[in-house]
Write a structure and sequence with these properties.
The protein is α+β, with helices and mostly antiparallel strands and about 400 residues long. The chain has helices at about 15-35, 40-45, 50-60, 75-90, 90-110, 115-125, 245-275, 290-315, 325-350, 360-370, 375-390; strands at about 130-135, 150-155, 155-170, 175-185, 190-200, 205, 220-230, 280, 285. Belongs to the acyl-CoA dehydrogenase family.
Length: about 400
């Protein structure tokens, strides 16, 4: 074997020294601190998030692309590379980092008051506080405008009622950013507001969701609000429309573009190594034409996808990235990664269904990654709208 999958495009030559250094630091952390345990975490459907968060904070990856308040302030490309290395271990781990930094922290950083930023962001960047982001509901996933969670003004306070579903980190979160529908803004349209909830607030509970077949090394739950009363100082003052949560979702989708390819790369590297040592008819499995055809096709798809991710990252760093371009990346990366991990599993045969090898674990996780932060179908429609000028959502 003369090269690695990304070696065909000399990917490292496209990065600067700082980007390579940050990527290598995250990869080394993953090898030392995460990889030896991920099989057990997945099998036992657990994640020692409280123990991992301070280590991730020390590494500097929590909110790493945000400026100030204890955040590292790295480039978008550097953040993407970190997501790739973390998801090369497991999608559940990258989800933890993304929810913390690109959803909960980003919402406060982008839409919060100065007091809110100073109060929450340094502790979240250090991993002292774990955050979650409550937008999705049992009956409002792809259509957040129809959320049923309501926030009613009562003097200087708000009363929140509703339920959020499939919320990463919620059962263990110290801080929850929750979105709710508010009274008419005066133009005949409803308003929307984001609120910061603290663990222990009266009327706020977060039961855990069990028996998952995907993202098992991730803590997932609900957010239940029952006459939860909050002061107006806990409302995010910077936005009163769906622009607030949708902007946050685009941040998280950007990380997925890179992260999913990390899972695909790891699965492909595993398949290459396995087929080179597995003997079939007195020959290495890698010596057969069908095996090489599969490996070649997967390498080409991975390399094309990584180049797309890098271009999207460069556009983001230049301040030129549009939401429909994020959709192109998220749709492509998740579909390609899922196809690669499934194909890699076939090359491992029966061994591929065990936790000794990563491809099927990655594939199970990517079934969720394909769907969350916008389903594949929704991203197709976002791209279609940009191409045709026609709204096909309704």
């Amino acid at each position: 074997m003369t090269t690695t999958p990304l070696g065909f495009i000399d990917f490292d030559s496209l990065l600067d020294d700082e980007e390579r250094m940050l990527r290598d630091a995250v990869a080394d952390f993953g090898t030392r601190e995460l990889a030896p345990h991920i099989g057990d975490w997945f099998e036992n459907a657990t994640l020692p998030a409280k123990e991992l968060a301070p280590k991730l904070g020390d590494l500097g990856v929590l909110g790493m692309h945000l400026e100030g308040y204890g955040c590292a302030g790295t480039s978008a490309v550097a953040y993407g590379l970190a997501c790739m290395e973390i998801e090369a271990i497991d999608s559940g781990l990258r989800s933890f980092v993304s929810v913390q930094g690109s959803l909960a922290m980003f919402a406060i950083h982008h839409w919060g008051s100065e007091e809110q930023k100073e109060n929450y962001l340094p502790k979240m960047a250090a991993g002292e506080y774990i955050g979650c982001f409550g937008l999705t509901e049992p009956d409002a996933g792809s259509d957040p405008a129809n959320m049923r969670t309501r926030a009613v003004r009562d003097g200087d306070e708000w009363i929140l009622n509703g339920t959020k579903m499939w919320i990463t980190n919620s059962p263990i979160a110290d801080v929850a950013v929750v979105w709710a529908k508010t009274d008419d803004r005066g133009d005949g349209k409803p308003g929307y507001a984001g609120f910061i909830l603290d663990k222990g607030d009266a009327g706020f509970t977060a039961p855990e969701i069990h028996r998952k077949l995907s993202l098992r090394a991730s803590v997932t739950g609900e957010i239940v609000l029952d006459d939860c009363r909050l002061p107006d100082s806990r409302r995010l003052p910077g936005v009163s429309s769906l622009r607030g949560p949708l902007t946050c979702l685009n941040e998280a989708r950007y990380g997925i573009i890179w992260g999913a390819l990390g899972a695909a790369r790891n699965a492909l590297e595993t398949a290459i190594e396995y087929t080179s040592t597995r003997q079939v008819f007195d020959r290495p499995l890698s010596s057969f034409q069908l095996t090489q055809a599969k490996l070649a096709d997967m390498t080409v798809e991975l390399d094309k996808s990584v180049l797309l991710a890098l271009q999207i990252g460069r556009l983001k760093d230049a301040g030129k990235l549009s939401p429909h371009q994020v959709s192109v990346g998220k749709l492509n990366s998740t579909r390609v990664a899922l196809e690669i991990t499934r194909e890699c599993r076939t090359l491992l045969g029966a061994s591929g269904i065990t936790l000794e090898y990563s491809p099927l674990r990655h594939a199970n996780n990517l079934e969720s990654v394909l769907t969350y932060e916008g389903t594949a179908e929704m991203h197709q429609l976002i791209i279609g709208k940009e191409l045709t000028g026609e709204q096909a959502f309704r």
